[in-house]
Design a protein that fits this description.
The structure is a single chain. This protein is 25% helix and 12% strand. By secondary structure, it is an alpha+beta fold. The strands form 2 sheets. Strands 2-3-1-4 form a 4-stranded antiparallel β-sheet, with helices on one face. β5 (122-123), α4 and β6 (143-144) form a beta-alpha-beta unit. 11% of the residues are buried. The model is unreliable at 1-24 (pLDDT under 50).
Length: 145
């Protein structure tokens, strides 16, 4: 792994004091700002690699693989047929066909929107790799992508 270090810690001034413009051109400081502590936590979180996400949906050996994976102590989270593992997790002897890699964070974002309550069909105009579309299909939604 490559380590990056700097000789001094650089922190933009007042980046945590983001407010909305007031009529007189000044900035409001009410509930619109994160505060320094929360802003720093958000920024520091961006330095960490994401969890390794995998999805077994549609895999011919999904049930057997699910049983094997669900029992591993390294599992960080589990939703449906998807798992989150610590960053850098590697699997030896991956099955054929391979397990699908999928962002667990994307799954959490979609789950947070309660897609099963949406009227269908869902029009997916995202230009991504299809991970969110796959989650919607897994939920039984009709998706046009």
């Amino acid at each position: 792994m490559t380590r990056i270090s700097t000789a001094r810690k650089v922190r933009p001034r007042n980046f945590w004091r983001v407010g909305t413009p007031a009529r007189n051109g000044s900035r409001t400081s009410g509930g619109d700002s994160y505060g320094e502590e929360t802003a720093l936590k958000y920024l520091e979180a961006q330095l960490n690699p994401p969890a390794v996400g995998i999805n077994l949906y549609g895999h011919p050996d999904a049930d057997e693989l699910f049983t094997d994976l669900a029992g591993l102590p390294e599992v960080l989270d589990l939703e449906g047929m998807s798992f989150a593992f610590p960053p850098g997790t590697r699997f030896d002897g991956e099955p054929e066909p391979p397990i699908a890699r999928q962002s667990f964070a994307a799954r959490q974002a979609v789950e947070g929107l309660s897609p099963t309550s949406w009227p269908g069909p869902v029009w997916d105009a995202c230009a991504g790799r299809g991970g969110k579309t796959r989650i919607l299909l897994e939920k039984g939604l009709k998706v046009f992508a």
